[in-house]
Amino acid sequence: MNITQKSQKLLTTIAEIGREYSAKPDIHLIDPFNHFFDKNKNLILNELDKQDGPWTRRELITRFLLLNAVLDQGPDIEGLRQLLIKVTNELYQREVRILHRPLDFFKELGISIDKICTVHEGIKKVRAPIWAKENQSNPEKYNLFMDNSKQVLNYAVFRWGVPLCVPLILEKDGKTLIDYLERCNSAELMSKEIKDNERYGLGKAIGDKAGHLFAKWYVCSFNLARRQDKGWQNLSFEIPFDSNAGRIFFRTGFLLNWANIKDYIEWEVVQKGKGKGGLNYIRVTNIRGKKSDVALKDNGLFERYKTICAEYLSTKKRPRTIEIQQIPNALLLNTDYGIDELDNGLIYIGTNFCLNHENSKCKDCPIKELCEGYNSNPDLIQNYRT
What we know:
It contains 17 helices and 5 strands. By secondary structure, it is an all-alpha fold. The chain has 2 domains: 3-14 and 239-385, no CATH class; 25-181, no CATH class. It has a 3-stranded mixed sheet with strand order 3-4-5. A two-stranded antiparallel sheet has the order 1-2. The chain starts with a helix and ends with a strand.
């Protein structure tokens, strides 16, 4: 197999795993959403436009997912999602209806902060030992607040408040969040819009990874998109490049198929000696916008890439180069898989087998036969961390 075929085989294998192990927030546990689901915990899709107070179910779920995407950044995703669910439920029990009435969060900021603090402490007691064992760390370092902050006011107002302000301002302007999002020509453009828009953009409150995670949930995980054109399907947004994706793509050799190690060092994707224990650090977010000369030489891949850019991502009509972070979209074109399934597979493998320390469970990993680090270059596993 050539590089393109080998890479496609790896991605479709991961996506097949992701099809079985879906990774999405348990929004059926949100008390005000209980009646949005059937007895099997499936979202009732044909009732998404049913009114729930002044808003549709589709609008309310989207508001929650935007907040979830902003908060879904930290050392323990399981703990973070528990925090969001429990705080939301306890606020609703106090009639602080932050999804129906976002202004409630600020009107009752004291209650909001108290709930965040008390719920965080409860989760820490349970999750800190588990997290420390999984990550070979100290449980005392467990902290779900962004940037390891100890100031809950900053965390509450910035990380919770900013995404809650988006539907609040849109409401003042006579718009819904759904209408605002779907005015974009693709989910990829939408992921940029929610960050960069001059009036409604979240700015530094949301990163590229979180924007793409939101796109995945909105388009694929919960089928919330009303638009059904190619710009709103499962190849219409980039993969959320998080530590799992970076670690797996590097260790398996996928990234090295498209550029050499010197390139990644020059781009500061690989940072020598800056990882845990003095090992090499993989900062996968720095790969954004970097070009692959290797991929450009494959005419068939380039044709697929042009289709992805023009018809799905709506980013470029006639690209002249290939950006590495968009290669997965091109490789999955004309297969049965989408970016959502690929990301689900990366999350499953990254949290269960391809761990971010020296004791990865390589022998049990379902993609070990396709992994360069396991089969021929153990340095990729032993000396690199995310």
